[in-house]
Amino acid sequence: MASTSRGDSLPKVQCPNHPEAQLVEDYRAGDMICPECGLVVGDRVIDVGSEWRTFTNEKATKDPSRVGDAQNPLLNGGDLTTMISKGTGAASFDEFGNSKYQNRRTMSSSDRAMLNAFKEISTMADRINLPRNIIDRTNNLFKQVYEQKSLKGRSNDAIASACLYIACRQEGVPRTFKEICAVSRISKKEIGRCFKLILKALETSVDLITTGDFMSRFCSNLGLPKQVQMAATYIARKAVELDLVPGRSPISVAAAAIYMASQASAEKKTQKEIGDIAGVADVTIRQSYRLIYPRAADLFPPDFKFDTPVDKLPQL
Amino acid sequence: MDEEASLENYFDHTLGSSDFHFEGDLGLQGSAPQLQDSSFLSSLTSREKDLTEDLDLSFLPDELSTQDEPPQAENDSRNEDSGVYTDGPPRDSTEGDTDTMNLACPLDLKSIALQARNAEYNPKRFAAVIMRIREPRTTALIFSSGKMVCTGAKSEEQSRLAARKYARVVQKLGFPAKFLDFKIQNMVGSCDVCFPIRLEGLVLTHQQFSSYEPELFPGLIYRMVKPRIVLLIFVSGKVVLTGAKERAEIYEAFENIYPILKGFRKQ
């Protein structure tokens, strides 16, 4: 609606005095105005503004909007079906208290499962505050998997959780499997299986996780200042570069790095706290910490301010 | 057991028809040999089902199986004869064979479980008798149709011998058991390339074959197309190969992977 260049199919309205001028649309009044002389050239353009002003908290239950929800054509196949909604007022109920006109039939029976899954995805993503782009990506992935039908036997919730995991990875902000488990009813094992199946079905791959992907989240959840977070990121990166922790999961290395950085700063966190946030056992942190402890002096960034010097770091 | 020696003679005299049919699958697709005694490598079989809950076998990855819930043993007692040479690729050691065979007579599992030693039978959990023998150390699943799955042997000959011993045991218990359709279904091998490996590099270049998820499993799962073998490659340089029907497939797969791994050696 906003574009003024509709191509050559429509007769172009022009200002009679200034044929070269690009007309400006005033959508409130439904006019097209010449910017040079101010002549109203075309009128009765369809007004796309809202019909009436709505204020918050003003009888919020009665939404007089007549257009309903925004359409989601990419995902639902763009159906324009309507359905009978629940009645309001006394007349819509018959003598037993049941509502008349109960016809709220399945609007799209084939996509009902998909809509359910979208709702579930939305709920899960909401629990961990994921932004809209990840949710959209997850929905797209789910739609692709669902249409392919190669994973038809699997529980839709499992596929939805796995799609959520993949979407987070693809957007560059990976969540650990345990974090996804925390918001889903599916076990980590099942999510992991579905994850691998989906990657094979969609013939995509994802980047390997690195320690830095999780630093900002874990550190903020622990309430560590930015300096400590930067130090922990540096420590973890250096530890992987120097190959001090071969074969260890990046999450465990990240947790150990956070432990070391926090113990060297004023904000000391226990292994248990870090383990709770990161989803790793505190023995795992201990193991990884033991591996990086000998080279602790090399791992810290050069400009780090030590509250506890390196030789006084706890030795576990 | 001391009966074994006498059973040997008994067997040789009585079991006349031992046709060794090597072809044909037995259709024992659903059974899952998962055993505590055998090394974890030998329990990486091509068909699995969750046998016993107390075996927490979730340590190893699932895709080695064709079924949904493969149990994997965490038991580290592998007698691995890796034969490591300091210069040059070391030999594998065949770790485990799984085979199936047909006893060709319907069996009463309850009586077998009651009479035989080292047999367990829990029909609510699994519909087969789980029998173990000590020499060669193997475990067998014996089904009421007469079909049997035997796992845990260290070589093809041992696997065959073990299967015959089980047939003997069943025969001693009074069933007219025969030894038909012995077929090796899966072979597992392990080896050590003696240098650390950069798994991240390998997964980058061989994306379509590799799957490396440190959160799920510490090893890289490489699915070789020809021969169709699955390899578990670890940072330490240890490699596990499974899914082979023949010994030669394992060797071929190792010959294929070795130059690739050399390219990703950690300096």
Provide the fold topology.
The complex is a heterodimer of chains A (316) and B (267).
Chain A: E1 24-26, E2 31-33, E3 40-42, H1 73-76, H2 112-127, H3 132-148, H4 156-170, H5 177-183, H6 188-202, H7 212-222, H8 226-241, H9 250-264, H10 271-278, H11 282-292, H12 296-299
Antiparallel strand pairs in A: 1-2, 2-3
Helix pairs in contact in A: 2-3, 2-4, 3-4, 4-6, 7-8, 7-9, 8-9, 9-10, 9-11, 10-11
Chain B: H1 3-14, E1 93-102, H2 109-115, E2 119-121, E3 128-133, E4 138-143, E5 147-153, H3 156-172, E6 180-192, H4 199-205, E7 210-211, E8 220-224, E9 229-233, E10 238-244, H5 247-263
Antiparallel strand pairs in B: 1-5, 1-6, 2-3, 3-4, 4-5, 6-10, 7-8, 8-9, 9-10
Helix pairs in contact in B: 1-3
Protein name (chain A): Transcription initiation factor IIB
Catalytic activity (chain A): L-lysyl-[protein] + acetyl-CoA = N(6)-acetyl-L-lysyl-[protein] + CoA + H(+)
GO molecular function, one term (chain A): RNA polymerase II core promoter sequence-specific DNA binding
> Got a strand count of chain B?
10
The biggest beta sheet of chain A reads: 3 strands, antiparallel
The protein's oligomeric status is: heterodimer
Helix content of chain A: 40-55%
**What are the segments of chain B in which pLDDT stays under 50 over at least 5 consecutive residues?**
15-58, 63-88
Number of strands of chain A: 3
GO biological process, one term (chain A): RNA polymerase II core complex assembly
Keywords (chain A): Acyltransferase, Chromosome, DNA-binding, Metal-binding, Nucleus, Repeat, Transcription, Transcription regulation, Transferase, Zinc, Zinc-finger
InterPro entries (chain A): Cyclin-like_dom, Cyclin-like_sf, TFIIB, TFIIB_CS, TFIIB_cyclin, Znf_TFIIB
GO molecular function, one term (chain A): promoter-specific chromatin binding
